[in-house]
Amino acid sequence: LGGGGGGSDSVKIGAVMALSGPFARTGEENQRGLEVAEDYLDGEILDSEFELIIEDGESDPNASIQAARTLVEDEDVDAIIGPVSSGNSISVMQYIKEDGQVPHLMTTASSVEARENPENCNEYGFFIWPSNRHLAPTGTQFIQDLPNHIDRDFDPSRVHYVSQDYALGQNGLELVEESMNEVGGEVTGSTLVPLGETDWSSYISEIANSEADVVTGVLTWGAAAQLMPQANSFGLPEEKVMMFNSGKPIGQFAASTMPDEVTVDGWFGTHFYNPGLDTDVNNEFQSLYNELDSSLLPNSTAGASFELMRALATVIEDSGSTATDDIISGLEGLEWDSVFGPIQFREEDHQAALNFFGGRRVASDGDATEVEVFEEYPDVIPDARCSL
Amino acid sequence: MLEIPLITTENFITYALNGLSRGMIIFLVASGLSLIFGLIGLINFAHGAMLALGGYGTYVVIQATGNFWLGLVISVVLVAVLGLALERKVLYWIYDEPLLGFLSTFGIGLVIEEALAVYFGSRSYTVPSPLPESVQVLGVSYPSYRLFVILVGAVVALGIGLILVKTRLGLEIHATANMQPTAEILGVDTARIYTITFVLGTALAALAGALTAPITSMYPTIGLDYITMAFLVIIVGGMGSFKGSFVVSMIVGQIIAFGWLVLSPTYVRILVFAAAMVFILYKPRGFFGKAEVHE
Amino acid sequence: MLSVEGLTKKFDSVVAVDDVDMELRSGEIHGLIGPNGAGKTTTVNLITGELTPTSGTIEFDGTDLVGRSPSAIARQGIGRSFQVVQYFPEMTVRKHLRLAVRDSTETVRSVFNRQEDYGPQIREVAERVHLEDDLDTVAKNLAHGKKRFLDIAMVLGMDSRVILFDEPAAGLNQSETDEVKAILENLRGEYTVLIVEHDVDLVRSISDRITVLHNGSVLTTDTPENVVENPQVKEVYLGE
Amino acid sequence: MSELLTVEDLNAFYGDSQVLFDVSIELGTNDVVGIFGRNGMGKTTLLNSLVNRIDRKTGTVTYRGQDVSAWSPHEIVREGIAYVPEEREIYPALSVRENLELAMTSDIGDDAREERIQNVFTQFERLGERQEQRGGTLSGGEQQMLAIGRALVTDPDLLLLDEPTEGLAPAIIDDVVDILESLVTGDRAVLIAEQNINRMLPLIDRGYMIQTGRIVEEGDSDHLSDEAIHDKYLTV
Amino acid sequence: MSDRLSDVRGFVRGLPRRPLLAVGVLLLLAVPFLFPSQSDLATEALIFGLFAISVDIVLGYAGLLSLAPAAFFGLGSYTVAKLVVDYGQSFWLGFPLAIVLALVLALVVGYVPIKRRIGNVYFVLFTLAFGAIVHDFTFVTTWLTGGSDGLGFFGPPEVLGIDLGGNTEYYYFTLVTVAIVGYGLYLLIKSDYGDILHATRQNELRMRYLGYDTNRELMIAWLVSAAVSAFAGAVYVGLVGIASPSLVSFALTGDVIIWIIVGGTGTLLGPFGAAIGLVFVQELLQNLWQGGYRLLLGILFVVFVFVLPDGLMGLLRDEE
Ligand SMILES: Nc1ncnc2c1ncn2[C@@H]1O[C@H](COP(=O)(O)OP(=O)(O)OP(=O)(O)O)[C@@H](O)[C@H]1O
Ligand SMILES: Nc1ncnc2c1ncn2[C@@H]1O[C@H](COP(=O)(O)OP(=O)(O)OP(=O)(O)O)[C@@H](O)[C@H]1O
Ligand SMILES: [Mg+2]
Ligand SMILES: [Mg+2]
User: Fold this and answer.
1) What are the residue boundaries of the ABC transporter domain, all occurrences included (chain D) (predicted)?
2) Cα of C40 to ligand 1 centre, how many Å?
């Protein structure tokens, strides 16, 4: 394995965050998670101040690569956290694999392309976010379990798929089709909304007229912020069971400025972060988060980068070294208690194993996010598909 | 592969209303642009930023008072005042240079959007709908806020259309736009006409922003997603033809509302842009524009 | 040399040019006069390709010009000046003439041209219109009369055989008008000239033949002496 | 004779170059006055200065006792002045009728407006035939008629005409001169800039001769019809 | 203020030109040695400089404001990336192909608007729509362009035993290509063709009646511009190793317009210098005020449009 800045005095960690462009909202929360982690660690690793250098990846693969390059080649960082989306992450992964060669901890990259394509996944990369192959079957399973929790007559074996018309949405569709087939159901139709679309009325009509009773899919925060209020105004959740993966809508309300008036009735989701989880680390995470000047609530996106930073600190503290090899071997198989509950970086493919649940957001009265958990899904991580 | 599904009357009405409300929103954005562009000849690229300001202004007032209508009025007035200041202090002397006009409004728009991004962050804000209920129209249930938007669009269209066609102000706007020094010696206070037109156009952008806020969510560059379409609409409708931008907005709204039945939505959008481009080529003066003028 | 037959141009309901037959003989100076709106400018625009005729033919040296672009027609050897002088305000007189003199069809080869090429031709043309001392003046700074001359010089420089002048003396004072007249006289025999002009004295004194248009149709084509005496022309145009 | 317009020590500039030098003229309420001079001597500039259509000027222009030097053009013309510019400046996209409508301020009643328009159509039949045609498609001469018509509909107290016969066919010039004759007999003041002095002499009460921006001669028709003056200032 | 300006002007004019040029060239040659950590950035700056020049030819000389330059830049990047990543072809094959594709696309897009002389304002909006289509298209056609993931990752090949993948090597490669292409454009513009464009801008009617096929002349400028933009995009993708939607985005178009205005339209050298300067300024500012760069850039741009519409070159050039 290659270099890494083992020799320098203080620990240097680089982050590529989407601070502008379509994923800026995710990037902002990722960054906030890092700030919380700095507070949490008192700014120190190995008893001396560590340096956190954040570069803007502009929500774009090419800018992300450039940012990573600057971090590795000019700043000589010991590890990189980020960037956000799969597309951006893939470009950085390829760069790390070929040239960069430092530990690379990704925040929300979830596409199959990033996680399973042997050209992309590599020995340097670690993933804390569940992959789409995680999300789709769990969501499908939850849909099958939903009739036990909803007092409505509907057929969980037929779903309509909704997402945005780009890689994430296109990939998600295939996976949902696959997992629906596995449970003997089907995807009866799909709506892929153009990027940058602000008026969703036609698509809502399409969804309303779909054959299926259940609507599912993956949404970015931006898309969810468009879909939810507009669908509510058309009364869509009264006609269809709305169940989305990837923390929408459960996390959505926490991490956006969705007003209270946007009703949550009829919206369901699967997620791995329960804000109500009563553990030391989650309580501290939440209180540090709330001290920051943010109108938002603690959420999984901030939690992800928070935990990546913690994991790095733990590994460096344990081995006393910032050498690339030492960090990677430390991370492999690392188990710890996170804001998501118990979690582990699997040795075979560097994917995090964590537990899921299905439920819904309920209207809250304070700043705490209330989540009603219907079902728990531990051990849903699929077999390793990428050998490093 | 194209497949044309059968649709029921109810669906048809819902789709048509979708198209109508979408068309009206496009029109609200386009109407201000059309005034400023069609009549002053200025490609006002800051229009999108004004729209965003209208939306954010409404959001801020709602945060403070909880009242949407107050937010709407205040933000439209404030943006109009900003438009007044811009026109009086900055833009008035570049009207006869379209390229410079485009560039300066491009710069001003950039500054406003980036300032919004720095201040509010790039996350989006959702504004609650002031009319959350649905009502029955023509046998289907439809969100009343969208019907309200349709109504406002229609009133704006009619009101401004009448001003342009029936009033002396309309004639003076035309005269000033085409040959300002001549309008002056015919007794037209052209400085006032420029100001009125620009401020009115800007206020319409803010109105569009405030009205769309409860439908969509606000983010700093939201304007860019609207104005490309709005520009095409006013060109296809015919430079300076208010009627044209109205009719074309309605057509585009309906195309998108029904287009997904036969084609994937992204391609519908691409198709609309492409069709508009072809149209510009074959009829640069647009649907309702007048024929080429010789010297 | 150049002949039009049955030339007609309709704008919506207005028939601006109505079945006009006209022939320019090689080397002659031909006047084209008529009341305002008679169709003179439109005729010139039709010949030069600015407008496409509704019907009729325009034949030049045995080829049909209808449907060709203005630049193609100009390259065939038909030059024109405009009712309102047309020039490049920010360029020097020398550059104007250089653009006129050089081969207008070549672009890329011009990379290898040198500054001093075309010098003699430019000087020769400038001298014809008395602009030789203004070669380095930027055109917008020229007096109005000299702008006129510059316009004419460009046409001469591009080596046309037929030149169409649309009101070359408009806006000129007497001495300038006389200068224009001298320049035009100078062209006789060398070029075939069509001149549209309201200064009847000017047209009469230099034209070999004059065509009178009225309401888009040819009233008469004749020698200057006969045209001025023609009662119809007097009635509709000269107004005596 | 009561004063309508007084110009004192007018200097006018385009950029750095001065075009008018210390020009002073005056005009009574019913005066018909000519400004004569060769091309480029400053006639148009003088008229433009009166209504403030110029980059920069010094000196005072007094109209009906008010100093209007710093007023904007529309404010000045609203005091009862009509201007027929040299370039005609017809609105190409507006119809003949709309061009006329535009010149009349909104305080004129509908009947009066229509009557004035019809008057113009009687004076220029050709315009009447083409009232819905767009200004830009009129021929040069037709545009000149429209420009004059556009001044007449305002029923001005002072009419400024800049070379009303330029670019017109001789027959039309006769018509225009006829119209001017009918105008000058009315109770309004007229200021005409012209090169074509002989046509104008019968019409005017007084005239000024302008030479490179300076008034060099002033007097009545008789005085100005002097061949010597013509030779000196008009021919070459 | 204007005193200060004329001081600057006087100073600059007083400087001997040739030695200044020599210093500039030496500086460019020495970048990898003087600032080894900045050579990537310097490479990017040079490429954007060339891109700015290519766009200046249509905007500054032909007078056509296109809002789609990024489409051609991106086309160059995507062509190379597609060949290398999906078809495993040679990196070099991408260059001629990129240029050919750009020429074809430019011809298709520009032919009718230029031929019909749809007018400046319409041309602006026409290209705005075209840019929007290309951007949307790049996102949807994942099978062709990789959608939002882009097409990557790859490095430039070895030539004559030199591995262009190294920062220094690629810098010199870029320097040489930019110098050659840039000088070629300079020659073209300084020749009679520059005058033809200049004159056409001022009075197209007159040019046509001088026998010039002005449509053809404008078309040539448009094609040259598109080809050079695509070429710049192709060089660029070798640097970053991935083609992604940001390369066809409106933001990039906005940037190139800003560079041109700040540098001075129709001066070639101005936009070139401004692009290079602003790329470095961006890097500097980004470390000082995260997110504020574009705001400052916007303010800078507005200041230039209103106060110095002739750009930096206008500031330095002699006044008549
Ligand atoms: N594009 C057009 N649309 C409609 N009518 C037109 C158009 N162009 C010209 N005309 C009409 O055609 C007639 C002839 O116009 P033209 O300009 O040829 O006259 P002209 O003889 O040059 O007159 P002038 O001496 O006044 O310049 C006029 O009645 C004019 O109104
Ligand atoms: N916009 C301008 N910029 C610079 N100089 C100008 C401008 N307009 C006119 N001039 C100059 O001012 C002088 C006077 O011009 P003006 O038009 O007043 O003359 P004129 O007597 O009306 O001539 P004409 O008989 O040609 O109409 C001329 O030398 C002319 O070149
Ligand atoms: Mg004519
Ligand atoms: Mg004059």
Assistant:
1) 5-236
2) 8
Alpha-carbon gap, residue D204 to D200, rounded angstroms: 7
Question: Does residue E153 register a pLDDT over 50?
Answer: yes
- Whether A36 has a pLDDT exceeding 90, the answer reads yes
User: What pTM was estimated for this model as a whole?
Assistant: 0.84
- Nearest-by-CA chain B residue for E137: B270
Number of CB atoms found within 10 A of residue D110's CB:
7
- CA–CA gap between residue C79 and residue E211 (Å, rounded): 8
Q: Which of B107, B276, B284 minimises the CB distance to E298?
A: B107
Q: What residues of E are in contact with residue B274 (Cβ under 8 Å)?
A: 129, 133
Percent of chain D whose predicted confidence (pLDDT) is above 90: 33
User: Are the beta carbons of D55 and D13 closer than 8 angstroms?
Assistant: yes
Q: What is the pLDDT of residues A78-104, one digit of tens each?
A: 999 989 888 889 889 988 998 889 999
Separation of CA A386 from chain center: 20
| Residues forming a β-bridge with B199 | none
- Angle of the C93-101 helix axis to the E192-202 helix axis, nearest 10: 110
Nearest-Cα distance to chain B for D119, in Å, is 19
CB A104 within 8 A of CB A123: no
Decide if B86 contacts B49 (C-beta within 8 A).
no
Residues of chain E in contact with residue A112, where contact means CB-CB under 8 angstroms, are none
Q: Which of A339-343, C103-107, E44-48 has the lowest mean pLDDT?
A: C103-107
Query: Is the separation of the CB atoms in D53 and D226 below 8 Å?
Result: no
Between CA B130 and CA B67 the distance in angstroms is 8
CB proximity D234 to C under 8 Å: yes
Which has the minimum average pLDDT: A340-344, B85-89, E232-236, E313-317? E313-317
Give the separation between CA B16 and CA A202, rounded to whole angstroms: 10
Q: How many angstroms separate the CA atoms of D225 and D191, rounded?
A: 18
* Interchain contact E/D (3 or more Cβ pairs less than 8 Å): no
Give the orientation angle of helix D140-152 with respect to helix D170-184, to 10 degrees.
10
Among candidate residues A65, A83, A86, the one with its CA nearest the CA of residue A167? A86
Q: In which element (H, E) is residue A120 found?
A: none
Question: Which amino acid is present at A282?
Answer: N
* Phi-psi map region of A151: left, alpha, beta (phi>0 left; psi -120 to 50 alpha): beta
C197 Cα to the center of ligand 3, angstroms: 9
Mutate to test the interface with B, among A199, A209, A261, A299 (most CBs of B within 10 A): A199
- Greatest CA separation for chain E: 60
Ligand 1: which atom is nearest the Cα of residue C45? Answer: 18
Kindly report, residue by residue over A315-324, the tens digit of the pLDDT.
Answer: 999 998 899 9
**ipTM over the 0.85 cut-off:** no
Kindly give the number of the ligand 2 atom that is closest to the alpha carbon of C144.
31
pLDDT higher than threshold 80 for residue D17 = no
**Crossing angle for the helix pair D140-152 and D96-103, to the nearest 10 degrees:** 30
Do residue D101 and residue B171 have CB atoms under 8 angstroms apart? yes
| CA Rg value for chain B | 19
Matching residue, tokens 């080809």 = E227
Question: Of B145, B266, B269, which is closest to A233 when you measure between CB atoms?
Answer: B145
| For E74, nearest residue in chain A (alpha carbons) | A62
Q: Which of A242-246, B99-103, B289-293 has the lowest mean pLDDT?
A: B289-293
| Chain length of chain E | 320
Q: Which ligand is nearest to the CA of D48?
A: 2
Number of other CB atoms surrounding residue D164 within 10 Å: 26
A45 touches A73 (CB < 8 A) = no
Contact C46, C73 (CB under 8 A): no
- Mutating to test ligand 2, I would choose from D38, D41, D48, D162 the residue with most ligand atoms within 8 A of its C-beta, which is D41
Give ion ligand 4 contacts, CB < 5 A. D 43-44, 86
Tell me, what amino acid is at D15? G
